[in-house]
Amino acid sequence: MTDENKTKWRNLGKKLAGITPVIGSMLGGPAVGAGIQILGDLLGTTDPDEIESQIEGMTHEQVIELKQHDTNVKVKELEAEMNLEDNLTARHESDNATDSKFVQYLRPLMAWVWTGVAIIVVFYGLFLLDIAKLSIFTTILSFTSTVLITIIGFYFGSRGLEKVAAITGNRFGSKAKSIKSIIDIFKRK
Questions:
Q1: Of the candidates 44, 67, 136, 143, which lies 20 to 30 Å from 112 by C-alpha distance?
Q2: C-beta separation of 67 from 52 below 8 A
Q3: What is the pLDDT of residues 51-75, one digit of tens each?
């Protein structure tokens, strides 16, 4: 896609955002191909100029149909997200229900191992580093700190969320349940 076409689609997405916020945001972002396909299926063309002229000449009924199609796209997105959350929850439940010590201790083991790696890297940098190797060390330190932050954040973050859910008796519900209620609201419209 040429830069000129990208700009046309971005501008069309901005115009559509008031009518169809989901499809409009697709055209202005990384999902431009999906947005083009949806509009192409609905309007019979994938030319941005033709689509723009068709949208400008739409009747009230056609605008309502376009909005309904936009709502259906949002429902499909939410259903896909709910499916992803359900699968993630099922995987975490199976990990917690297993008798395998490896699965139960994998997260804490990774947190300890990467903490040790970070301590070694920092010790090396403070006491054993030759100034000529500084650029490679900063790259290694940056990578190590990113991995460590991710692992410790996931370990303590997920454990914290599990504990909060256990303490509150899951009264807040899962994200998948809240997404399901949003889908139900959209389907009622």
A1: 136
A2: no
A3: 888 888 888 888 888 888 888 888 8
Task: Spell out a b/e string for 40-63, using b for 16 or more CB atoms within 10 Å of the CB, else e.
Answer: eebbeeeebeebeebbeeeeeeee
- Cα 102 to its chain centre, rounded Å, is 29
Burial of 9 (0-12, 13-18, 19+ CB in 10 A): buried
Question: DSSP label at 18?
Answer: T
CB within 8 A of 137, min separation 6: which ones? 124, 125, 129
Residue 130's SS3 state is coil
pLDDT, residue 179, reads: 56
pTM: 0.49
Both tokens assigned to 71: 């709502």
